[in-house]
Amino acid sequence: MNMKRAFLAAVAVFIMMPGLAMAQSSSTFPGSFTFVPLGPEGAEFDLSLTCNGGTPLSQSVATAADNTINFTVIGAFEAGAICNFDLSGLPANGWDLTDNGNCTDVAAVENGPAAECVFAIEPTPFSFWADISWMANSETASDVPVSGDLMLECTSVWDTVSMVTTVSDTYPITMDGLQILAGDYAPHPDGSTVCSATLMVEDSAVEVDSSGCSAVSVEVGDPVFVSFDDLPRGGAEEVSICSIEASVFFEGIPTLSQYGMAIMVLLMLGVGFVGFRRLV
Predict the structure, then answer these.
(1) Among 13, 29, 39, 262, whose CB has the most other CB atoms within 10 angstroms?
(2) Taking the CB of residue 207, how many other CB atoms lie within 10 A of it?
(3) CATH 1.10.3470, domain 2-123, yes or no
């Protein structure tokens, strides 16, 4: 009799299991990524979802930009699961990853989709620097006051308000070397960003060679990462640097030494004495 009851109980559980499984909800977690403003053509990265409850606990798909992937997790709602998205395989240099706030600590929705997670991949901002090297032909030349302006300009940059634009500024010349074109902007991914620096000097004693800064092409991943204490803007950042050479030529006014001045005085006295004798 007991054997019969045990057999009937096992059969009942076996029959009920599909029903119990079917009673679990199905939660959907949509996710995607996009390039801002654009990125490498045909690039694919791994978009993954990891949950602390439901089935499966983790899943990953290789996908291209602007393609929404709908991850499905069974029983996530009943388990009170929290899920997190991740995007891996990005280029090593030149790109920053942000998201719309729906990619971490995502709660499951019963038989429905959660808010879509969207990752944004943007070019890393950089700063453009001009390094002025002053060269003098004498110790005196280094003391000559120099007046003029340094013109810095970058065309086709991607700025913080998502516009392709031109940025420029003009600085009074100083003798302390580096000058910065300040701002938060990035190279355009299509490779069209070009920066230039022009040193405009009014003094004819100064010769300027700005050829090294006439057309500096800046591509995504090109700027170098620096962290110097003597830069015009503190901290560490991605920079692109070009060099300008300025040569100061100054011959000065010929003068006599102390001995020469003494001899000149004696000569003048002699000339004066001779002239006085003639007049007398």
Answers:
(1) 29
(2) 13
(3) no
Burial level of 228, CB count in 10 A (0-12/13-18/19+)? exposed
Dihedrals φ, ψ of 131, to 5°?
-100, 110
SS3 state of residue 142:
helix
Q: Distance (Å, rounded) from C-alpha 127 to C-alpha 184?
A: 7
Tens-digit pLDDT profile for the chain (280 aa)? 455 554 444 444 444 444 444 579 999 999 999 998 888 888 999 999 999 999 999 999 999 999 999 999 999 999 999 999 999 998 878 889 999 999 999 999 999 999 999 999 998 888 888 887 777 665 544 555 566 788 888 888 887 555 667 777 776 665 555 667 766 788 888 889 998 888 887 777 778 888 888 998 988 888 777 665 555 555 566 777 888 887 777 555 555 567 667 777 777 777 766 665 666 6
The β-bridge partners of 175 are: none
Domains 2-123 and 126-248 share a fold: yes
Q: Which residues contact 72 (CB under 8 A, 6 or more apart)?
A: 26, 27, 28, 29
H runs (alpha helix) in the chain: 2-23, 258-279
Please tell me whether residue 49 adopts helix, strand or coil conformation: strand
Which helix or strand (DSSP H or E) is residue 47 part of?
A: strand 44-51
Place of tokens 């930009």: 65
Query: By CB neighbour count within 10 A (0-12 exposed, 13-18 middle, 19+ buried), where does 154 fall?
Result: buried
Q: Are 87 and 100 in contact (CB under 8 A)?
A: no
Give the number of C-alpha atoms closer than 13 A to the C-alpha of residue 126, restricted to the C-beta side: 30
Q: Where are the domains of the chain?
A: 2-123, 126-248
Q: How many helices (H) and strands (E) does the chain have?
A: 2, 17
